[in-house]
Amino acid sequence: MMTFDSMKELLTYCDTYQKSIAEAMMDMEMEKTGQIRDDIFQKMKDRLIKMQEAVDAGKSDASTAPSGISGGDAVKMGAYMESGEALSGNLIPRAMRYAMATSECNARMGVIVATPTAGSAGVLPGILFALRDRDQFSLDALTQGLFTASALGYIIANRSFISGAAGGCQAEVGSATAMAAGVIVELKGGTPQQAVHATAMAMKSLLGLVCDPVGGLVEVPCIKRNVIGTSIAFSSADMALAGIESRIPCDEVIETMYRVGSEMPRTLRETSLGGLATTPTGEEIKRTLHN
Amino acid sequence: MEFQSCFDIIGPIMVGPSSSHTAGAVSIGTFTHELLGGWQPEKVRITLYDSFAQTYQGHGTDKAFIGGLLGMKTNDTGIKDALTMAEENEIDYRFSLEQGACPYYDHPNTSIIVAKNGRRDVKVGGASLGGGLAKIFLINDVETSIRLSTDDDLRSICNRLPMYMFTHKEREA
User: Which GO terms describe its biological process (chain B) (predicted)?
Assistant: First the structure.
Protein backbone atom coordinates (compact mmCIF):
# COMPACT_ATOMS: atom_id res chain seq x y z
CA MET A 1 0.00 0.00 0.00
CA MET A 2 1.35 3.37 -0.99
CA THR A 3 2.11 5.67 1.92
CA PHE A 4 4.64 8.30 2.94
CA ASP A 5 6.52 7.45 6.11
CA SER A 6 8.97 10.32 5.85
CA MET A 7 9.67 13.57 4.01
CA LYS A 8 12.50 11.72 2.29
CA GLU A 9 10.05 9.16 0.87
CA LEU A 10 7.66 11.91 -0.18
CA LEU A 11 10.41 13.79 -2.00
CA THR A 12 11.64 10.61 -3.70
CA TYR A 13 8.11 10.01 -4.98
CA CYS A 14 7.77 13.60 -6.22
CA ASP A 15 11.15 13.36 -7.92
CA THR A 16 10.51 9.96 -9.54
CA TYR A 17 7.10 10.87 -10.95
CA GLN A 18 7.79 14.60 -11.42
CA LYS A 19 4.83 15.54 -9.26
CA SER A 20 4.06 18.26 -6.76
CA ILE A 21 3.52 17.36 -3.09
CA ALA A 22 -0.21 18.08 -3.58
CA GLU A 23 -0.40 15.61 -6.49
CA ALA A 24 1.51 12.99 -4.51
CA MET A 25 -1.03 13.24 -1.69
CA MET A 26 -3.94 12.88 -4.08
CA ASP A 27 -2.27 9.77 -5.55
CA MET A 28 -1.98 8.27 -2.07
CA GLU A 29 -5.58 9.09 -1.19
CA MET A 30 -6.90 7.60 -4.45
CA GLU A 31 -4.95 4.40 -3.93
CA LYS A 32 -5.92 4.02 -0.29
CA THR A 33 -9.62 4.74 -0.71
CA GLY A 34 -10.30 3.63 -4.29
CA GLN A 35 -12.14 6.92 -4.84
CA ILE A 36 -11.72 8.95 -8.00
CA ARG A 37 -9.69 12.15 -8.06
CA ASP A 38 -12.67 14.45 -8.64
CA ASP A 39 -14.49 13.18 -5.54
CA ILE A 40 -11.44 13.55 -3.32
CA PHE A 41 -10.75 17.01 -4.74
CA GLN A 42 -14.35 18.13 -4.19
CA LYS A 43 -14.32 16.88 -0.59
CA MET A 44 -11.20 18.96 0.09
CA LYS A 45 -12.70 21.96 -1.70
CA ASP A 46 -15.77 21.71 0.57
CA ARG A 47 -13.42 22.07 3.54
CA LEU A 48 -11.78 25.11 1.97
CA ILE A 49 -15.22 26.69 1.56
CA LYS A 50 -15.97 26.08 5.25
CA MET A 51 -12.64 27.72 6.07
CA GLN A 52 -13.62 30.72 3.97
CA GLU A 53 -16.99 30.93 5.74
CA ALA A 54 -15.25 30.96 9.13
CA VAL A 55 -12.94 33.78 7.97
CA ASP A 56 -15.88 35.76 6.60
CA ALA A 57 -17.90 35.25 9.78
CA GLY A 58 -15.00 36.11 12.05
CA LYS A 59 -13.43 39.09 10.34
CA SER A 60 -16.29 41.49 11.01
CA ASP A 61 -17.54 39.98 14.29
CA ALA A 62 -16.57 42.20 17.21
CA SER A 63 -18.34 40.08 19.84
CA THR A 64 -16.45 38.33 22.60
CA ALA A 65 -16.25 34.58 23.23
CA PRO A 66 -18.56 33.25 25.99
CA SER A 67 -15.58 33.51 28.39
CA GLY A 68 -15.22 37.25 27.75
CA ILE A 69 -11.43 36.95 27.43
CA SER A 70 -11.14 37.04 23.63
CA GLY A 71 -12.88 38.45 20.60
CA GLY A 72 -12.96 41.64 18.55
CA ASP A 73 -9.27 41.68 17.62
CA ALA A 74 -9.86 40.55 14.01
CA VAL A 75 -11.92 43.71 13.54
CA LYS A 76 -9.10 45.86 14.97
CA MET A 77 -6.55 44.10 12.77
CA GLY A 78 -8.76 44.74 9.72
CA ALA A 79 -9.04 48.46 10.42
CA TYR A 80 -5.29 48.73 10.95
CA MET A 81 -4.55 46.78 7.78
CA GLU A 82 -6.83 49.02 5.75
CA SER A 83 -5.10 52.13 7.12
CA GLY A 84 -2.10 51.12 4.99
CA GLU A 85 0.21 51.88 7.90
CA ALA A 86 1.04 48.30 8.88
CA LEU A 87 4.79 47.86 9.29
CA SER A 88 4.89 44.41 7.73
CA GLY A 89 3.20 45.52 4.49
CA ASN A 90 -0.06 44.32 3.04
CA LEU A 91 0.29 40.53 2.93
CA ILE A 92 1.22 39.54 6.49
CA PRO A 93 -1.31 41.81 8.28
CA ARG A 94 -3.98 40.36 5.99
CA ALA A 95 -2.96 36.81 6.94
CA MET A 96 -2.93 37.86 10.60
CA ARG A 97 -6.43 39.26 10.30
CA TYR A 98 -7.81 36.08 8.69
CA ALA A 99 -6.04 33.81 11.16
CA MET A 100 -7.47 35.86 14.02
CA ALA A 101 -10.95 35.75 12.48
CA THR A 102 -10.81 31.95 12.31
CA SER A 103 -9.40 31.41 15.79
CA GLU A 104 -11.91 33.85 17.29
CA CYS A 105 -14.70 31.98 15.50
CA ASN A 106 -13.33 28.75 17.02
CA ALA A 107 -13.37 30.27 20.51
CA ARG A 108 -17.04 31.21 20.03
CA MET A 109 -17.80 27.53 19.30
CA GLY A 110 -18.42 28.44 15.67
CA VAL A 111 -17.82 25.99 12.81
CA ILE A 112 -14.19 25.75 11.68
CA VAL A 113 -11.95 23.19 9.96
CA ALA A 114 -9.25 21.61 12.11
CA THR A 115 -5.93 22.19 10.25
CA PRO A 116 -4.50 20.03 11.74
CA THR A 117 -6.30 20.80 15.01
CA ALA A 118 -8.95 23.30 16.09
CA GLY A 119 -6.46 25.04 18.40
CA SER A 120 -4.23 25.66 15.37
CA ALA A 121 -7.03 26.23 12.84
CA GLY A 122 -6.11 29.87 12.16
CA VAL A 123 -2.74 29.56 10.45
CA LEU A 124 -3.67 27.87 7.16
CA PRO A 125 -6.75 29.96 6.32
CA GLY A 126 -4.68 33.01 7.28
CA ILE A 127 -1.97 32.37 4.69
CA LEU A 128 -4.29 30.91 2.02
CA PHE A 129 -6.80 33.75 1.86
CA ALA A 130 -4.08 36.41 2.16
CA LEU A 131 -2.36 34.85 -0.86
CA ARG A 132 -5.70 34.72 -2.67
CA ASP A 133 -6.17 38.47 -2.16
CA ARG A 134 -2.62 39.23 -3.29
CA ASP A 135 -2.24 36.85 -6.26
CA GLN A 136 -5.85 36.01 -7.19
CA PHE A 137 -5.42 32.29 -6.58
CA SER A 138 -8.58 30.37 -7.53
CA LEU A 139 -10.38 28.14 -5.04
CA ASP A 140 -9.01 25.15 -6.97
CA ALA A 141 -5.44 26.40 -6.55
CA LEU A 142 -6.03 26.92 -2.82
CA THR A 143 -7.53 23.42 -2.62
CA GLN A 144 -4.27 22.11 -4.10
CA GLY A 145 -2.60 23.99 -1.25
CA LEU A 146 -4.68 22.02 1.26
CA PHE A 147 -3.43 18.77 -0.29
CA THR A 148 0.15 20.02 0.10
CA ALA A 149 -0.62 20.89 3.72
CA SER A 150 -2.18 17.50 4.40
CA ALA A 151 0.84 15.61 3.00
CA LEU A 152 3.24 17.55 5.23
CA GLY A 153 0.92 17.24 8.23
CA TYR A 154 0.36 13.54 7.61
CA ILE A 155 4.07 12.83 7.93
CA ILE A 156 4.43 15.08 10.98
CA ALA A 157 1.39 13.53 12.71
CA ASN A 158 2.54 9.96 12.15
CA ARG A 159 6.18 10.53 13.08
CA SER A 160 5.55 12.89 15.96
CA PHE A 161 2.31 14.45 17.26
CA ILE A 162 -0.20 17.19 16.51
CA SER A 163 -1.98 17.52 19.85
CA GLY A 164 -1.00 19.95 22.59
CA ALA A 165 -1.81 17.39 25.27
CA ALA A 166 0.68 14.98 23.74
CA GLY A 167 3.46 17.35 22.62
CA GLY A 168 2.81 20.98 23.59
CA CYS A 169 1.98 23.89 21.29
CA GLN A 170 4.98 23.07 19.09
CA ALA A 171 2.86 20.08 18.00
CA GLU A 172 -0.17 22.26 17.21
CA VAL A 173 0.75 25.78 16.07
CA GLY A 174 4.23 24.42 15.30
CA SER A 175 2.85 21.78 12.95
CA ALA A 176 0.28 24.13 11.41
CA THR A 177 2.94 26.78 10.74
CA ALA A 178 5.33 24.18 9.29
CA MET A 179 2.58 22.91 6.98
CA ALA A 180 1.65 26.49 5.98
CA ALA A 181 5.26 27.34 5.11
CA GLY A 182 5.42 24.41 2.68
CA VAL A 183 2.05 25.34 1.17
CA ILE A 184 3.20 28.91 0.43
CA VAL A 185 6.32 27.61 -1.32
CA GLU A 186 4.38 25.17 -3.48
CA LEU A 187 1.67 27.71 -4.37
CA LYS A 188 4.39 30.18 -5.35
CA GLY A 189 6.00 27.69 -7.71
CA GLY A 190 8.80 26.39 -5.50
CA THR A 191 9.99 22.80 -5.76
CA PRO A 192 8.92 20.02 -3.38
CA GLN A 193 12.45 20.17 -1.90
CA GLN A 194 12.09 23.88 -1.21
CA ALA A 195 8.67 23.32 0.35
CA VAL A 196 10.09 20.72 2.73
CA HIS A 197 12.97 23.05 3.65
CA ALA A 198 10.41 25.75 4.49
CA THR A 199 8.53 23.22 6.64
CA ALA A 200 11.73 22.34 8.49
CA MET A 201 12.71 25.99 9.08
CA ALA A 202 9.24 26.91 10.37
CA MET A 203 9.13 23.95 12.73
CA LYS A 204 12.63 24.65 14.05
CA SER A 205 11.59 28.15 15.05
CA LEU A 206 8.72 26.83 17.18
CA LEU A 207 10.42 23.84 18.82
CA GLY A 208 9.84 23.76 22.55
CA LEU A 209 6.71 25.90 22.50
CA VAL A 210 4.55 24.83 25.44
CA CYS A 211 0.77 24.43 25.62
CA ASP A 212 -0.42 26.58 28.51
CA PRO A 213 -4.00 27.73 27.87
CA VAL A 214 -5.29 30.20 30.45
CA GLY A 215 -8.32 28.78 32.24
CA GLY A 216 -8.12 25.75 29.94
CA LEU A 217 -9.63 27.79 27.10
CA VAL A 218 -8.36 27.77 23.51
CA GLU A 219 -8.04 31.55 23.60
CA VAL A 220 -5.09 32.95 25.56
CA PRO A 221 -2.39 32.59 24.22
CA CYS A 222 -3.66 30.26 21.45
CA ILE A 223 -5.33 32.84 19.20
CA LYS A 224 -2.30 35.14 18.97
CA ARG A 225 0.06 32.21 18.48
CA ASN A 226 -1.99 31.28 15.41
CA VAL A 227 -1.80 34.87 14.19
CA ILE A 228 1.97 35.06 14.61
CA GLY A 229 2.34 31.60 13.05
CA THR A 230 1.35 33.15 9.71
CA SER A 231 4.32 35.52 9.73
CA ILE A 232 6.73 32.70 10.62
CA ALA A 233 5.25 30.68 7.73
CA PHE A 234 5.86 33.54 5.29
CA SER A 235 9.40 34.17 6.59
CA SER A 236 10.27 30.48 6.26
CA ALA A 237 8.76 30.30 2.78
CA ASP A 238 10.67 33.40 1.70
CA MET A 239 13.93 31.85 2.89
CA ALA A 240 13.20 28.60 1.04
CA LEU A 241 12.21 30.45 -2.15
CA ALA A 242 15.46 32.42 -1.88
CA GLY A 243 17.28 29.08 -2.08
CA ILE A 244 18.12 28.87 1.63
CA GLU A 245 18.09 25.34 3.02
CA SER A 246 17.53 23.92 6.48
CA ARG A 247 20.85 22.53 7.72
CA ILE A 248 18.99 19.87 9.70
CA PRO A 249 16.89 17.65 7.41
CA CYS A 250 13.13 17.97 7.95
CA ASP A 251 12.70 14.37 9.13
CA GLU A 252 15.26 15.00 11.88
CA VAL A 253 13.50 18.22 12.89
CA ILE A 254 10.23 16.29 13.21
CA GLU A 255 12.00 13.62 15.26
CA THR A 256 13.34 16.43 17.47
CA MET A 257 9.85 17.80 17.97
CA TYR A 258 8.84 14.34 19.15
CA ARG A 259 11.75 14.08 21.59
CA VAL A 260 11.24 17.58 22.97
CA GLY A 261 7.52 16.93 23.42
CA SER A 262 8.16 13.62 25.16
CA GLU A 263 10.50 15.35 27.60
CA MET A 264 8.08 18.22 28.22
CA PRO A 265 6.58 18.15 31.72
CA ARG A 266 2.89 17.34 31.97
CA THR A 267 2.22 20.81 33.44
CA LEU A 268 3.10 22.31 30.05
CA ARG A 269 1.02 19.97 27.91
CA GLU A 270 -2.52 21.36 27.85
CA THR A 271 -3.23 20.79 31.51
CA SER A 272 -3.25 24.51 32.40
CA LEU A 273 -1.00 23.68 35.36
CA GLY A 274 1.96 25.78 34.20
CA GLY A 275 3.22 28.49 31.86
CA LEU A 276 0.94 31.49 31.20
CA ALA A 277 -1.98 29.61 32.76
CA THR A 278 -0.43 29.94 36.21
CA THR A 279 0.63 33.60 36.06
CA PRO A 280 -1.20 35.83 38.58
CA THR A 281 -3.42 37.12 35.77
CA GLY A 282 -3.98 33.62 34.40
CA GLU A 283 -5.01 32.36 37.84
CA GLU A 284 -7.30 35.35 38.32
CA ILE A 285 -9.04 34.69 34.99
CA LYS A 286 -9.47 31.04 35.95
CA ARG A 287 -11.06 32.02 39.30
CA THR A 288 -13.46 34.41 37.57
CA LEU A 289 -14.45 31.80 34.97
CA HIS A 290 -15.21 29.09 37.46
CA ASN A 291 -17.35 31.29 39.70
CA MET B 1 0.30 5.12 11.59
CA GLU B 2 -2.84 6.46 13.28
CA PHE B 3 -3.39 9.13 10.62
CA GLN B 4 -4.34 7.50 7.35
CA SER B 5 -5.93 10.10 5.13
CA CYS B 6 -5.49 13.70 3.99
CA PHE B 7 -8.83 14.34 5.68
CA ASP B 8 -7.44 13.24 9.05
CA ILE B 9 -5.12 16.26 8.78
CA ILE B 10 -7.38 18.80 7.01
CA GLY B 11 -10.54 18.27 9.00
CA PRO B 12 -12.85 17.58 10.57
CA ILE B 13 -15.33 20.35 9.90
CA MET B 14 -16.35 20.92 13.49
CA VAL B 15 -17.60 23.33 16.11
CA GLY B 16 -14.75 24.69 18.23
CA PRO B 17 -12.83 25.11 20.30
CA SER B 18 -10.67 21.96 20.42
CA SER B 19 -10.27 19.04 18.02
CA SER B 20 -9.10 16.70 20.77
CA HIS B 21 -11.21 18.06 23.64
CA THR B 22 -14.34 18.84 21.62
CA ALA B 23 -14.49 16.97 18.26
CA GLY B 24 -12.82 13.77 19.49
CA ALA B 25 -15.10 13.79 22.52
CA VAL B 26 -18.19 14.17 20.31
CA SER B 27 -17.09 11.11 18.30
CA ILE B 28 -16.66 8.98 21.43
CA GLY B 29 -20.10 10.13 22.61
CA THR B 30 -21.73 9.46 19.23
CA PHE B 31 -20.12 6.01 19.12
CA THR B 32 -21.65 5.24 22.52
CA HIS B 33 -25.01 6.54 21.26
CA GLU B 34 -24.82 4.07 18.37
CA LEU B 35 -23.74 1.30 20.71
CA LEU B 36 -26.89 2.01 22.72
CA GLY B 37 -28.80 1.11 19.57
CA GLY B 38 -28.98 4.66 18.24
CA TRP B 39 -30.94 5.85 21.27
CA GLN B 40 -30.13 8.35 23.98
CA PRO B 41 -28.98 7.08 27.35
CA GLU B 42 -31.29 7.44 30.33
CA LYS B 43 -28.40 7.43 32.72
CA VAL B 44 -24.71 8.08 32.01
CA ARG B 45 -21.54 8.38 34.08
CA ILE B 46 -18.45 9.80 32.38
CA THR B 47 -14.99 9.62 33.92
CA LEU B 48 -12.38 11.94 32.45
CA TYR B 49 -8.66 11.43 33.00
CA ASP B 50 -5.55 13.62 32.94
CA SER B 51 -5.64 16.48 30.38
CA PHE B 52 -9.32 15.80 29.65
CA ALA B 53 -10.05 16.26 33.36
CA GLN B 54 -8.01 19.46 33.68
CA THR B 55 -9.54 21.52 30.90
CA TYR B 56 -12.90 19.91 30.26
CA GLN B 57 -15.17 22.89 30.89
CA GLY B 58 -13.06 25.41 29.01
CA HIS B 59 -12.99 23.22 25.92
CA GLY B 60 -16.67 22.36 26.09
CA THR B 61 -15.72 18.71 26.61
CA ASP B 62 -18.82 18.15 28.76
CA LYS B 63 -21.08 19.59 26.04
CA ALA B 64 -19.21 17.54 23.44
CA PHE B 65 -19.66 14.18 25.21
CA ILE B 66 -23.31 14.87 25.97
CA GLY B 67 -23.94 16.18 22.44
CA GLY B 68 -22.45 12.97 21.04
CA LEU B 69 -24.52 10.84 23.42
CA LEU B 70 -27.60 12.70 22.14
CA GLY B 71 -26.58 11.62 18.64
CA MET B 72 -25.00 14.85 17.39
CA LYS B 73 -22.08 14.96 14.93
CA THR B 74 -18.90 17.07 15.28
CA ASN B 75 -20.20 19.90 13.08
CA ASP B 76 -23.56 20.23 14.85
CA THR B 77 -24.02 23.79 16.10
CA GLY B 78 -26.43 22.38 18.70
CA ILE B 79 -23.44 21.09 20.73
CA LYS B 80 -23.30 24.47 22.47
CA ASP B 81 -26.71 23.77 24.00
CA ALA B 82 -26.26 20.02 24.61
CA LEU B 83 -26.37 20.24 28.42
CA THR B 84 -29.66 22.14 28.36
CA MET B 85 -31.05 19.64 25.89
CA ALA B 86 -29.99 16.71 28.09
CA GLU B 87 -31.77 18.29 31.04
CA GLU B 88 -34.90 18.82 28.96
CA ASN B 89 -34.77 15.15 27.93
CA GLU B 90 -34.33 14.20 31.60
CA ILE B 91 -31.02 12.43 31.06
CA ASP B 92 -29.30 11.67 34.36
CA TYR B 93 -25.66 12.52 33.58
CA ARG B 94 -22.64 13.04 35.78
CA PHE B 95 -18.95 13.69 35.15
CA SER B 96 -16.19 12.61 37.46
CA LEU B 97 -12.61 13.77 37.14
CA GLU B 98 -9.48 11.71 37.71
CA GLN B 99 -6.34 13.83 37.74
CA GLY B 100 -4.06 10.86 37.10
CA ALA B 101 -3.57 8.61 34.08
CA CYS B 102 -6.20 6.18 32.82
CA PRO B 103 -5.52 2.61 34.01
CA TYR B 104 -6.65 1.06 30.70
CA TYR B 105 -4.95 3.14 28.04
CA ASP B 106 -1.85 5.33 27.98
CA HIS B 107 -2.90 8.70 26.56
CA PRO B 108 -3.57 12.07 28.25
CA ASN B 109 -7.07 12.41 26.75
CA THR B 110 -8.95 9.34 27.92
CA SER B 111 -12.47 8.71 29.14
CA ILE B 112 -14.65 5.87 30.38
CA ILE B 113 -18.38 6.13 29.71
CA VAL B 114 -20.93 3.93 31.47
CA ALA B 115 -24.34 4.44 29.88
CA LYS B 116 -27.69 2.74 29.87
CA ASN B 117 -31.14 3.00 28.46
CA GLY B 118 -34.06 0.57 28.39
CA ARG B 119 -32.37 -1.50 25.69
CA ARG B 120 -28.72 -1.70 26.54
CA ASP B 121 -26.18 -1.17 29.27
CA VAL B 122 -22.71 -0.35 27.92
CA LYS B 123 -19.24 0.64 29.05
CA VAL B 124 -16.97 2.38 26.56
CA GLY B 125 -13.35 3.48 26.88
CA GLY B 126 -12.36 6.20 24.42
CA ALA B 127 -9.20 8.22 23.80
CA SER B 128 -9.04 11.38 21.75
CA LEU B 129 -5.83 11.25 19.75
CA GLY B 130 -5.73 14.79 18.33
CA GLY B 131 -7.00 16.41 15.15
CA GLY B 132 -10.48 15.00 15.77
CA LEU B 133 -9.36 11.39 15.59
CA ALA B 134 -10.45 9.07 18.40
CA LYS B 135 -9.86 5.50 19.47
CA ILE B 136 -12.19 3.14 21.29
CA PHE B 137 -10.00 0.92 23.47
CA LEU B 138 -12.61 -0.79 25.62
CA ILE B 139 -16.15 -2.07 25.11
CA ASN B 140 -17.88 -3.77 28.05
CA ASP B 141 -14.54 -4.80 29.61
CA VAL B 142 -13.29 -6.31 26.34
CA GLU B 143 -10.13 -4.58 25.12
CA THR B 144 -10.36 -3.42 21.55
CA SER B 145 -8.83 -0.94 19.11
CA ILE B 146 -11.30 0.88 16.90
CA ARG B 147 -10.14 4.03 15.19
CA LEU B 148 -12.84 6.67 14.70
CA SER B 149 -12.47 9.45 12.20
CA THR B 150 -15.32 11.95 11.97
CA ASP B 151 -16.10 10.76 8.43
CA ASP B 152 -16.73 7.20 9.56
CA ASP B 153 -20.19 5.74 9.66
CA LEU B 154 -20.28 4.95 13.38
CA ARG B 155 -23.55 3.02 13.13
CA SER B 156 -22.12 0.52 10.68
CA ILE B 157 -18.96 0.16 12.81
CA CYS B 158 -21.17 -0.69 15.81
CA ASN B 159 -23.24 -3.10 13.76
CA ARG B 160 -20.12 -5.02 12.78
CA LEU B 161 -18.87 -5.53 16.35
CA PRO B 162 -18.42 -9.17 17.42
CA MET B 163 -21.24 -10.53 19.56
CA TYR B 164 -19.01 -11.63 22.45
CA MET B 165 -18.71 -7.97 23.38
CA PHE B 166 -22.34 -7.93 24.46
CA THR B 167 -24.32 -9.74 27.13
CA HIS B 168 -27.06 -12.14 26.14
CA LYS B 169 -29.76 -9.59 26.90
CA GLU B 170 -28.07 -6.98 24.72
CA ARG B 171 -27.76 -9.36 21.78
CA GLU B 172 -31.52 -9.64 21.84
CA ALA B 173 -31.95 -5.87 21.92
Answer: gluconeogenesis
Please, which residues bridge with residue B49 across strands?
B98
The model's confidence at residue A211, banded by pLDDT at 50, 70 and 90, is very high
Q: How far is A219 from chain B (nearest CA, A)?
A: 9
CB B23 within 8 A of CB B17: no
Per-residue confidence band for A30, with pLDDT thresholds at 50, 70 and 90: very high
When divided into structural domains, chain A yields a total of 1
Q: Which amino acid is at A61?
A: D
Please determine, for the modelled complex, whether the ipTM score is greater than 0.90.
yes
The answer to whether the CB atoms of B54 and A271 lie below 8 A apart is yes
Answer CATH for B16-172 from 3.90.79.10, 1.10.3720.10, 3.40.190.10, 3.30.1330.90:
3.30.1330.90
Q: Which residues contact A32 (CB under 8 A, 6 or more apart)?
A: A1, A2, A3, B4, B5
Residue A188 belongs to domain spanning: 7-289
The domain that holds A148 is classified in CATH as: 1.10.4100
Interface of B with A (CB under 8 A): 1-20, 22-23, 50-51, 54-60, 75, 77, 79-80, 107-109, 129-132
- A101 has a chain B CB within 8 A of its CB: no
- Tens of pLDDT, residue by residue over A141-168, are 999 999 999 999 999 999 999 999 899 9
Residue A228: count of CB within 10 angstroms of its CB: 19
Task: State the smallest CA–CA distance between residue B116 and chain A in angstroms.
Answer: 29
Residue B166 to chain A, least CA–CA distance (Å): 31
Q: What is the DSSP string of B29-87?
A: HHHHHHHTTSS--SEEEEEEEHHHHHHTTTTTHHHHHHHHHTT--TT-GGGGGHHHHHH
Distances (CA, A) of A262 to A210, A267, A269: 12, 12, 10
- The 10s digit of each residue's pLDDT in A58-101 is 999 999 998 999 999 999 999 999 999 999 999 999 999 999 99
A112–B14 C-beta distance less than 8 A: yes
Contact yes or no for A150 and B10 at CB 8 A: yes
Q: Using DSSP, state whether B131 is helix, strand or coil.
A: coil
**CB–CB contact A113 B6 (8 Å):** no
Query: Cα(A190)–Cα(A148) distance, rounded to whole angstroms?
Result: 12
Inform me whether the pLDDT recorded for B58 exceeds 80.
no
Q: Please indicate, yes or no, if residue A132 is contained in any of the structural domains.
A: yes
Q: Flag if A114 and B108 touch (Cβ within 8 Å).
A: no
Nearest to B141 by CA among B120, B114, B119: B114
